[in-house]
Amino acid sequence: MNISRRSFITGAGISTAASILPARWANARDVNGEREIKLRFAIASDLHYGQRNTPFDEFAENMVEWINAEKKDKGLDLFFINGDITHDEPGMLIQLRDKHLKNLDLPYYCIKGNHDYVDEKPESPTESWNKVWGYSTNHTVEHKGFAFVMADTTVAAKSNVYLAADKKWLAGEFQKHAKAPAIFSFIHIQQRAHKKDGWPAHGVSAAEQVEKAEAVMDLLETTPNIRGVFHGHNHNETKMWVSGERRYFFDSHVGGSWGAPRGYRIVEVDSQHEIVTYQIKGEDKKELNRNPLPQSVRA
Question: Is residue 12 exposed (0-12), middle (13-18) or buried (19+ Cβ within 10 Å)?
Fold first, then answer.
């Protein structure tokens, strides 16, 4: 596959990806079958807990049920909620945590989205992300030797500005984990500009942020052991985009008032460090797409 650093593949071009996977991936749906799964994790985004005129408690219950079922049926190591976990109300962070997320049967981590505001008032229970979740909005988790790097792309208070991730912080984290078999990066707002070069809507758009975000893209695409970048924010997207040496994925949404069918994404790493990801439609467990995450898209 010969792809330039600024080219892309839309979902239309990869909808038959399962047919071009190596033979041992083609029917590898049973994690207890021919592949020995070393790591398996799930990603969901855009719960929008608290959004008016939506059954947000039901959405939260569904999400917890879906992820716990995956844990029970096939096993899960970790779960990531990739932004917009609440909808404009800082107090909803604690309500969601204490009413629903406490029922998850595995470790979970939250990435800050553009609707996830903090109170910032001194001594407020939601004064900071750290006060609610125990870690900052830029945070890295290590598990089984793999690195999961979660970057903040949003402002603290209500605003329509989408930010470039902190390149300096990212570069430092990537360097710390240069020997990890794989790095997975979670960034709520896509760093490619809004509708640039065929990319979807709702990317970084302010001129001063676009330049910074392209520098982040360069970093993502020149760090050898990054195997996948995962975005939220765009509720309509469940597909993959390719730029340079990197693959970028969206996972629809699990709540809110609009978008593609609600669901979540699974990532599996086998004992040979070969990686595959697929999107699941939550209500009927239908697999919507399946793609490998090779070391290089030119391989």
Answer: exposed
Identify the segments of the chain with pLDDT beneath 50.
1-32, 298-299
C-alpha 66/C-alpha 62 separation (Å) is 6
User: Who's near 294: CB < 8 A, 6+ residues apart?
Assistant: none
Which domains are assigned to the chain? 36-292 (3.60.21.10)
Torsion 6-11-13-17 (CA) sign? positive
Full-model pTM: 0.89
Query: CB under 8 Å to 221, separation ≥6 — which residues?
Result: 5, 243, 244, 245, 246
Residue 296's pLDDT is 62
Query: Are 250 and 237 a contacting pair, CB within 8 Å?
Result: yes
